[in-house]
Write a structure and sequence with these properties.
The structure is a homodimer. Chain A has two domains: 215 residues, Sulfite Oxidase, Chain A, domain 2 (Alpha-Beta Complex), CATH 3.90.420.10; 121 residues, Immunoglobulin-like (Sandwich). Helices cover 13% and strands 29% of the residues of chain A. Chain A is built from eight helices and 24 strands. In chain A, a hairpin with a 5-residue loop joins β23 and β24. The relative contact order of chain A is 0.14.
Chain lengths: 412, 412
């Protein structure tokens, strides 16, 4: 590929000029010119070591909070590389703001259909055998503007469209360990997870998940959870919709049936065309998005570049990602970058030669269960127009002849 | 193990009181009491979403810069979980401070024994097919106070002793791609990597490494490199000693022999007992350290807890880690946590029941080449007392009957 790349880019003008032109046209790649830099950095000593490392003033990657006193913020997917999302750029979604909690006064009550109702302090939780896992977390409302009619959708960046998904290394005590400690009744089949935020957010979770890979998490990317991610303790349910990963976790109640709470009756259900509704549609289906090229990129010239994107599934590992650069007429298998982990963002890459003409780029993820990301038409047929969550239909980017890239809602 | 853990902790007093006592005695686990928290977080709305997430005021994990205008800072290993080091807690080591560089004016020259000397802009580098990899980076001087006689060594924390190692996901263009683009001469066998910092730090690297897994890196943990880590571009050489991973990379010169620079003649060589010296001892050998329990922990009572630590090797994957809780008389195999990646920190865990008596805890890593971490006596015999780098001998922690934990230099 590399030799073809060279041959293709080099003719006419020098490869350097070709590459500079090709890349300098990408909006957002130009650095701010305000920060002070010396004419020759080899001639003056630099700054000393610090307790906390700062970002370069030339870098502008930030989350986008909604307007006003926002209850959510989105991850800048188009500006990130690899699969790890820095903790301070991980998306936020909360229903009554971020509470301030003193870990010395924190405790978790586990009760209900158990032999030994127990209150665990943070120190108790940290003393149990721990587990770390790199996993994605996605809000089930992520990506709705790629499904419902939206006249402005074409000017959405990956961050604006799908920025409610992120991926980190989470550490905590397996919930199964706590459930065994308290002695769960054999008749128990669900549990309640309740937050200590001002919404007292609560969800019902199947007991199987509690004994499978559920984590009572106190760390993200090596360090303590940040307040926006549930400090000091959150529930982490790999592959489950975001709102079930209850932050600021204060109570788990074991029961024989779901609790039929607001967030699983009036919200987080999926109305279907036949008038019924899917309830407890907890697992996030396989999904992918090309993060480069994407709006607001502008390709300044034909030639080779790398198509980059992310794929993930709440059901396990990504098996493969197919990419089309001709509006879906043909598909090529993208390279998946190691490590390919279960229920984890997976980086895919595909070298692409742009001829300079208008085209549409799409990606389609298939997970290890064989489930393939549907088209919008396929999803619309089974979910209907009224659905509010789980928008995993194929994303498409239209590349115009002038190199501008826009979201092509409904193209796939 | 869990049931044994329960049985062992519960008798006498309630498991909760036992656990609280057991954990509250760990120095550093107590939260600061200054930050403001409401009496009931469910009764007042929390704070809104933000562009950048902040840490909890109760968390104090920080790097430790040396005195004065420091040229290094250390990662708080004993306060971190899993394998990922946040970018702003990754250790720093620089020889003339951190330069401030405008990425719009950045370029990398690749020249010497090549067919097409080329200057690459940052945009050029980002356009090439990229690769991400989770790998450790360690300063070759890390851990010297566990080797040389040091009366204060017993009061060193993992951060103070071995905090010059960290682990992140690095993204960039494989150096092999650039070497093929410029057409390296078949007679070339080494290359120079030169920094644009005030030290103009430079090292000679074998060409085989350049074509193997060397990365010209522009991102760490998803985001752009931070200035302290080489912004906008650094060389990343998986498994090689830290100083060869040249930050603020401005020049690569291809040659037929090493350049015999200051940092590979007067520094970064290993004087041996016979008067000769090891030169270009570039690969970091297998090593491990128990991060919990460790100084300044104080165990407040007998019972079950988890021994936690990190192991890594510059030669590939960690094959296994053996842990002794009786001063080296017997060894148990620790659990290695997935994913176990090559040239990457690997988290190991072992449940341990402390009887309450004095003992010494050690860990010994073995990598996939079969190389096992040596004792201090073994390392001293081959390296002699004058060596300055590559201190990978076994670390040992002495647990006193009162629960205090200190570094037992020379115990292994």
């Amino acid at each position: 590929m590399l030799s073809r790349m060279s041959r293709t880019i080099r003719p006419g003008i020098s490869r350097r000029r070709a590459l500079v032109a090709g890349a300098s046209g990408v909006i957002g790649a130009a650095a701010a010119l305000t920060a002070q830099t010396p004419p020759d950095t080899t001639k003056i000593p630099g700054t000393g070591a610090t307790e906390i490392g700062a970002r370069s003033p030339f870098e502008k990657a930030k989350r986008r909070p909604g307007p006003g006193r926002s209850t959510s913020s989105t991850t800048p997917l188009q500006e990130l590389h690899g699969i790890i999302t820095p903790a301070d750029l991980h998306f936020e979604r909360h229903h009554a703001g971020i509470p301030s909690i003193d870990p010395a006064h924190y405790s978790l009550l586990v009760h209900g259909m158990v032999a030994r109702p127990t209150v665990f302090t943070l120190a108790d939780l940290k003393r149990f055998p721990a587990r770390s896992m790199i996993r994605f977390l996605e809000c089930s409302g992520n990506g709705g503007r790629n499904y419902r009619p939206d006249p402005e959708a074409h000017t959405l960046s990956p961050q604006q469209l799908d920025g409610l998904t992120s991926c980190s290394e989470w550490t905590g005590v397996p919930l199964a360990t706590l459930l065994r400690e308290v002695g769960v009744s054999p008749n128990a089949s669900w549990f309640l997870a309740e937050s200590m935020d001002a919404a007292v957010l609560a969800r019902s979770i199947p007991m199987e998940k509690g004994f499978d890979d559920a984590l009572v998490a106190y760390a993200q990317n090596g360090e303590a959870l940040r307040p926006g991610q549930g400090y000091p303790v959150r529930l982490f349910l790999p592959g489950y919709e975001g709102s079930t990963n209850v932050k600021w976790l204060r109570r788990i109640e074991v029961a024989a049936a779901p609790f039929m709470l607001r967030e699983e009756t009036s919200k987080y259900t999926d109305p279907l065309p036949d008038g019924t509704a899917r309830q407890f549609s907890l697992v996030m289906d396989a999904k992918s998005i090309v993060t480069e090229p994407a709006f607001p990129d502008r390709l300044a010239g034909a030639g080779w570049r790398e198509i980059r994107g992310l794929a993930w599934s709440g059901r396990g590992r990504i098996a493969h990602v197919d990419v089309s650069t001709d509006g879906g007429r043909s598909w090529q298998r993208a390279q998946l970058e190691d490590p390919v982990l279960p229920k984890c963002h997976t980086r895919f890459r595909l070298p692409w030669h742009w001829s300079g003409g208008e085209t549409v780029i799409m990606s389609r993820a298939t997970d290890e269960t064989g489930y393939a990301q549907p088209t919008r038409a396929e999803l619309l047929a089974v979910r209907g127009p009224g659905t509010q969550y789980h928008f995993n239909n194929i994303r498409a980017w239209r590349v115009a002849a002038d190199g501008t890239v826009t979201l092509a809602t409904g193209a796939a």
